[in-house]
Amino acid sequence: MVRRPVAWVVAVVLFAEALGVAALNWFLGVVVDRQDMSLAGLDPDTMSLSSKIGGVLFGLYFALCGLVALLVAVRNRPPAGFGRVLLISAAVVHALLGAFAWGLVGWPAFTFMVVVLALIVLLLMTYDRPAEPAGTAPPAQAPGPEGDDGAGTPVTPPPAPTTP
Question: How far apart are CA 148 and CA 137, in angstroms?
């Protein structure tokens, strides 16, 4: 089906994005350090160091999200617990980055962010419910204790409402 290939693609894209984000922020830190630039009186060394640390942390975050997607692809099981929360947070981050990219960078960066967002959401949604083998129906449930047919619908209709 489409679940495993989507998980593989999401893993590869998130690993590439992790490397790209870390490299870009490292490069920006080096530029600030070599230009000895200051922003509103901030120390250039502090700005350079914080850019490098932020890039490494953000890169590790995307790499961890890529690892979750890789585990989903290898195991062919839905992400659970912390992994699911991590992928949902990555989807939210990509939505916000896409909104900022539209205004600051332009439509190509926005398109990339939206495509990654769509891939993450597709990964989360394809594993939403367990797959059933073709040609099999879900097992029938026994009637419940309250006179329902097992599907949550009552056998007899409820009484008609009365007006005072």
Answer: 20
Neighbours of 148 (CB within 10 A): 14
Give per-residue pLDDT as tens, 49-94: 999 999 999 999 999 999 999 999 999 888 888 999 999 999 999 9
At 122, list the tokens: 């597709």
Backbone angles phi, psi at 161, to 5 degrees: -70, 150
Closest CA to 126 of 76, 91, 89: 76
Whole-prediction pTM: 0.72
3-state helix/strand/coil string of the chain: CCHHHHHHHHHHHHHHHHHHHHHHHHHHHHHHHHHCCCCCCCCHHHHHHHHHHHHHHHHHHHHHHHHHHHHHHHHCCCCCCHHHHHHHHHHHHHHHHHHHHHHHCCHHHHHHHHHHHHHHHHHHHHCCCCCCCCCCCCCCCCCCCCCECCCCCECCCCCCCCCC
Beta-carbon count within 10 A of 163 CB: 3
